[in-house]
Amino acid sequence: MKYLCFDIESCDGGKNGSLCSFGYCIADENFNILDMDDIIVNPDKPFNKRLFGTVIKLAYTEEVFRSAPRFPLVYDRIKSLFTEDMTIIGFSIINDVNYLADAIRTYGLEQINYEFYDVQLMYGIHKKEARNFSLAAAAAEFDIEFLEHRSLDDAVATLKVLKGILDSEKMSYNEFIESYGVMPGKIDRSVIRNCFTDVVFTGIDYSSTKTKKRLLNEFMFTLPRGKKQGLPFSGKVVCFDDDIELDDISLTRDRIQRLYELGGRYSSGVESSNVFVYNKEDSARYNFAKNAHKTGHRLHFVKLDEFLSMLGDIPTNTYNDAAILLAGNRRRRLNRERAAEKNRKSQKNSAQAQSHKAKKDRTRKRRRARNKGRVSSDPQSAKQI
Length: 385
Known about the structure:
By secondary structure, the chain is of the alpha/beta class. The chain contains 14 helices and 13 strands.
């Protein structure tokens, strides 16, 4: 296995061929650098002057960029780097992927298809924090010195950060990718998809209302959908008041589990329920339930103590909340991928149908034109008409 790490600088941070340098390094599986260079490009469009000041300072003067070849003249060299044996990496690499793809589109060249991995994402996993760290911050942890915004230096620093992550985790590259479920980004003619992971960071606040609601929603996916007849809660759809539902999410799940064993079902929506369980009056959800009842919604109000006595013995379960959230992330991700694939197929089929219809229309027009020509050129036919 070999690594290709690349970084791109843009003349204005925009589109229409703004790429002005392509820095790369190639390393073997032991992170020994085999090749590296900074390919300077004349973007053939104005530079944002702030890039030569204090905001972001490019490593070269504008004169150096202007004397460099335009992108089409270096395209073949860049494309030759993306071989099948390369593992493509970068830091916040989706930006660089987009810059390269934009330059290729701008000059009407053939798109380069490849998968890629984001070292910024991997560093976040290593730090167990779901935020976007800068390359400078990541490099500082491993005592890596480099010149920022010189594409070659950024690429080499990114490679060294990756090595630092793997050394700290005591894992090989493949072990890290597999252990944390890191999925590659992808670019081809039809899609650009970023690198991602389903990992749930340990810094998550399990006491927050948002997390509790997610855990409850994930739990509801595990419950049976079929209705049970002849049991104490058959035909009953129960809704808890807010404080009962979210105070202790593990206890709430235990109660709902018992409710389903007795034939009932649960909903957080008042209007999809026919039993409302409450502790005290005048909460927001309680008042909503009362208003719904006044306007004709059939709803039976039950105090919590009475409801618990109807449930009987409630078993206590243990929940691996991190694993539950992880499974939920994966399910949502797969659903998004399926929806995107379905949409791509639908668009492709629609385009093919339109192309087929246009072809048939052209065929009909040519046939009518030929038939019209035959009629007008036949005097006997014209006379009969």
